[in-house]
């Protein structure tokens, strides 16, 4: 996960992409709600990015486990291993 400066985060928001530089999934981009302080918005987006990172790591772990099980099943069916 890449940490960006405040200026880089604000520039990303103006370009309608998330702080990591990826286009937003819904196509609207990350936008600061009117009336919200920049510091609050940046704190919340950083927290959301951390949650996404944890979620993706968990999915990667689960998919790796499933992949190993499928390879073992394939080897059993083919008489290997």
List keywords for this structure.
single chain; 81 residues; mainly alpha; 2 helices; 60% helix
Description:
By secondary structure, the chain is mainly alpha-helical. Helix content is 60%, strand content 0%. The protein contains 2 helices and no strands. The chain has helices at 6-14, 38-77. The longest helix is centred in the last third of the chain and has 40 residues, at 38-77. It starts with 5 loop residues before the first helix and ends with a helix.
> Rounded to an integer, what's the Rg over CA atoms?
20 Å
* Overall geometry: rod-shaped
Q: What proportion of the residues form beta strands (DSSP E)?
A: under 5%
Low-confidence stretches: none
Helix content: 55-70%
- SSE class: mainly alpha
**Structure summary, number of beta strands:** 0
* Helix-strand topology string: HH
Number of structurally distinct domains = 1
| End-to-end Cα distance | 38 Å
Oligomer kind: single chain
Largest sheet: none
Instruction: Return the average pLDDT rounded to an integer.
Output: 77
Number of H/I helices: 2
């Amino acid at each position: 996960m890449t940490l960006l400066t405040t200026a880089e985060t604000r520039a990303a928001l103006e370009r309608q992409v998330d702080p990591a530089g990826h286009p937003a999934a819904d196509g609207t981009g990350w936008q600061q709600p009117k009336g919200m302080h920049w510091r609050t918005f940046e704190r919340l987006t950083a927290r959301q990015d951390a949650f996404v990172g944890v979620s993706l790591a968990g999915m990667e772990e689960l998919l790796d486990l499933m992949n190993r099980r499928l390879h073992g099943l394939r080897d059993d069916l083919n008489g290997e291993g």
